[in-house]
Structure formats: structure tokens, C-alpha cells
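C-alpha cells please, single chain.
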Amino acid sequence: MTEITAIIKIRETYVIDPVAFFFALVAAPLAVAAGGFWALGIPIFAVVFGGPIYLAIGVPVLLWYLGRRPPEPWRIAGLALASYGVPAAAFMLYQLVTAGERAVQEFSLFAGFGLIFAPLWGGVFGMFYRNFRRDIYARPI
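Here you go.
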């Protein structure tokens, strides 16, 4: 008689607080821009140029992460860096092959700022979400 005797570990899942998620998603880039607007306005332009990428890549990645783990700002910052850096590097290689070095130089300016602001926005998102999440959403299912 063959029976399964191994204990199957069920992965903990978390319900995402939609109000805290939306607030942190919108407030994180704005808080970073407000904190650093004195630096030649670069953080303000980062919100304009990086906002669509932040929403397109960041929202699915954050929903995936927060459904499986508790919000830890340092991990979210690292995840934001990786989720921005990998597509940016792939796009840069694509441009190097198709468009040449000049296009890569122009893109590297934007990518360089993105590599700075992605973990900043991710870390601030993690802090905001962790602090504004209601207690009912803090426990795993």
C-alpha cells in the first residue's frame, strides 16, 4: 500500500490592503520628489518620466510580492531595483544591437536615474504600506 506520508507545507498568503496599497503606490514617488526637489528638480522629472514604468512594472511585481510575504522595505527596494534593472539592461542590449552606441548613451542617462529612483520609490512604498496597512491584513491566511 502506497500512501503519501510527507507533510505538505502550505505557503502563507497575505490579503493586500487596497487602501494602503493605493496610498503607498501614489505617495511614494511624490514623497521622494518632495524630499529631493531641491536637487535641480530631478526627482520631479523622475516622477513624470518614470511614473509609467513604475506603474507598468511595479504594480504587478508589488501585488505578487505582497501576496506572498510581509512588507519589508529593504526587500521591496531590492525587488524594485531588480525589476527595473533587468528590463533596462535587456533594452539597452537591444538598442546596442539595433540602434548603435549613441542610442545606448542616451538611454543610459535615463536608466541611470531609474536605477537610483527605483529602489528609493520601492523602499518608501514599503514603509508607507507597512505603516498604513490595517491590522486585519497583517496576518497571513
